[in-house]
Amino acid sequence: MAGQLIFSSTVYLLVIPDKPVLPLYKSRSFVHQKYVVEGLSLAQIAAEIFSSKEAVRNALKRFGIPPRVPHRPHNGRVSEPRYGVKISNGRASPHLAEQQMFQTISELRRQGLTLRKIAEILTSVGVPTKKRGKSWHPQMVKRCLR
User: Fold this and answer.
1) This prediction's pTM
2) DSSP character for 88?
3) Nearest 5°: CA angle at 59, between 54 and 65?
């Protein structure tokens, strides 16, 4: 007798009379429903059936269900270039004024100033941040030193 797959909002059971319960990731219809139709991620499916992501991933391969292509955030564009780089005509190029700040920040750091003190100096002098923020933060200074 064929098994019957029962979908509900809370519990999923594959009922096969007189046979042990089949793990749900071994049911093609269940995996297809969850991954393709409902669009759930591997982690979401695994959490629902108390399984591992790897078991769900292997089931997708076994049933020939292709993995989804990871989306590219911001339509493939960088949301904001890092300090010292500008985007012009869709291409990254050096931002010369910001590049000069790297040398200044490095020199201040060599003189023994803390990241916090360098940030205070840049803010007090009026050096604009990448997002034209009002003040520099020590973490922003640290990123410039990399």
Assistant:
1) 0.46
2) E
3) 115
